[in-house]
Design goal:
- With 139 residues, the protein is mainly alpha-helical.
- The protein contains two helices and two strands; from the N terminus they run ααββ.
- Strands 1-2 form a two-stranded antiparallel ribbon.
- The termini are far apart.
Length: 139
């Protein structure tokens, strides 16, 4: 009886080994197909990605050279013109001509605290540095 049980166990183990072997062969075949599929699909995707990257680099260079640089140069030019005009239209100390601060300083005041409420400043056309202040505050 033990001999029969031993023989049946050996036969079952042999059948199990054959089934496991077949499953392993099928698994290896599927892995091979997966590798071939990846090789055939990933290669073109990588080439397309490289082409797209080169196109983006070329476009970036073109935009930087033909669009951004002239735009920055134009903005810089107008900023320089604005700065020059501002420098030409400001009085000493960086304050604009006719400000309450200038009127107060002309009368000896402190930082525009006692500046008149209504003052007019005239700039002579003969000399750009001659500025006169007229005050109507009653002092």
């Amino acid at each position: 009886m033990l001999a029969d049980l031993r023989d049946v166990s050996i036969i079952l183990l042999a059948l199990e080994s054959i089934v496991i072997g077949i499953i392993l062969l099928l698994l290896l075949w599927q892995i091979r197909l997966l590798v071939l599929l990846l090789r055939d699909e990933i290669g073109p995707i990588l080439r397309d990605t490289q082409e797209t990257t080169q196109t983006v680099q070329s476009t970036t260079k073109f935009v930087g050279k033909r669009v951004a640089k002239p735009f920055v140069n134009t903005i810089s030019f107008f900023a320089g013109v604005r700065g020059a005009l501002k420098a030409m239209t400001t009085a000493e100390g960086g304050r604009t001509a006719g400000s309450a601060y200038d009127a107060s300083k002309a009368r000896g005041g402190q930082d525009g605290v006692d500046a008149p409420l209504s003052s007019t400043t005239t700039i002579s056309a003969n000399t750009p540095s001659s500025i006169s202040t007229d005050s109507t505050s009653g002092q």
